[in-house]
Automatic annotation (TrEMBL):
GO terms for biological process: protein folding. One of its GO terms (molecular function) is protein-folding chaperone binding. It comes from Anopheles stephensi. Pfam families: Aha1_N, AHSA1. It comes from the Eukaryota. SUPFAM superfamilies: Activator of Hsp90 ATPase, Aha1 (SSF103111), Bet v1-like (SSF55961). This is Activator of Hsp90 ATPase AHSA1-like N-terminal domain-containing protein. Belongs to the AHA1 family. One of its GO terms (cellular component) is cytosol. InterPro entries: Aha1, AHSA1-like_N, ASHA1/2-like_C, START-like_dom_sf. Residues 29-161 form the Activator of Hsp90 ATPase AHSA1-like N-terminal domain.
Length: 326
């Protein structure tokens, strides 16, 4: 964990006139599920697939289960979405009506849209049905993937707005800053690349730092979490790349040795391993104690909740470690 004054610019919190989410430092989240359901229905329900004299129509969305969120962490946007979709379709060949289904079991951020699985099935089997099934497989899947790609692009464009706040130097003395284009907003890191010399202000109560003439109260977060598992199992969940990938739902980097780097959430969380003591004690229940120092006091409650949501609860859900029952 980087500390104040040690030169990691990603952890420098700057002064903002509105005192809101300075430097886009903490995790903010928007629920994109209702919007996504409406958008997917608009893109898929009634969608016509036509080519070379053949035509099929999506007659109904039989299943639309899942969720989507848009998150801002340190000026970067992270989108989580996972959908299980079943579409009913019909077509006609040689005056025979053919009906069937297209199943999309896992539309998520983990796969490129070209890799999303679409399975075509028929309600009955005959020469006309088999011909339309081949049409849906060879032509229909590509056209449906384009509709799914439209959903993903519009999700990122619409939910990028308002999640990245302008910095002080972008305000130019006004109350609002010009909005960046959607593409810039989605992919810009938002990290403050300029190093700032920090002066320590001693205090008898909470430590304080001064940044750009603004005093910032700091605090320490201490948490104790209990898991229904053995110590080696929790150790693996926090250190094995495949297990960390499972609960963070994204690519991770691990160099599991003293001084080694780790990277989570597409580079939004990174640091170094200071000390590693493997499987020191094994019991039926495992107690994890966390201490995070030099935290802006105004952000401590939000950060505490994010630890619980994106780490502890996610680990329990992913691996079935449950909660301590006493």
């Amino acid at each position: 964990m980087a500390k104040w004054g040690e030169g990691d610019p990603r952890w420098i919190v700057e002064e903002r006139p509105d005192a809101t989410n300075v430097n886009n430092w903490h995790w903010t989240e928007k629920n994109a599920t209702p919007w996504s359901k409406d958008k997917l229905k608009a893109l898929l329900d009634g969608f016509v697939i036509a080519d070379a004299g053949l035509e099929c129509t999506v007659t109904k969305i039989d299943k639309l289960d899942g969720e989507a969120t848009a998150n801002n962490r340190k000026g970067k946007l992270i989108f989580f979405y996972e959908w299980n979709i079943v579409l009913l379709w019909k077509g006609r060949y040689n005056d025979e009506e053919v009906t069937g289904k297209v199943t999309i079991p896992n539309l998520s951020e983990e796969n490129d849209v070209d890799e999303v699985e679409l399975t075509v099935s028929l309600d009955s089997s005959n020469p006309a049905a088999e011909r339309m099934k081949q049409f849906m497989y060879n032509v229909g899947r590509d056209k449906l993937r384009k509709q799914l790609d439209t959903y993903i692009r519009q999700l990122k464009a619409d939910f990028a707005k308002g999640l990245i706040l302008p910095k002080k130097d972008e305000l130019n003395g006004t109350e609002t800053a010009p909005q960046k284009s959607d593409k810039e907003t989605v992919f810009a890191s938002g990290f403050n690349k300029k190093k700032i010399d920090l002066q320590t202000i001693t205090s008898a109560t909470e430590p304080t730092k001064q940044v750009g003439g603004c005093k910032l109260d700091l605090t320490t977060i201490k948490m104790t979490e209990m898991f229904q598992c053995r110590a080696n199992e929790l150790f693996d969940a926090l250190t094995r790349e495949d297990m960390v990938t499972a609960f963070t739902r994204g690519h991770v980097k691990h160099e599991l040795f003293k001084g080694g780097d780790f990277v989570y959430f597409g580079g939004n969380i990174s640091g170094k391993f200071v000390e590693i003591v493997q499987n020191k004690k094994i019991v039926d229940h495992t107690v994890l104690k966390l201490t995070q120092t030099m935290v802006p006091k105004a952000e401590s409650e939000k950060i505490t909740q994010n630890w619980k949501c994106y780490y502890w609860n996610s680990i329990r859900t992913a691996f079935g470690f449950g909660s301590f029952l006493g």
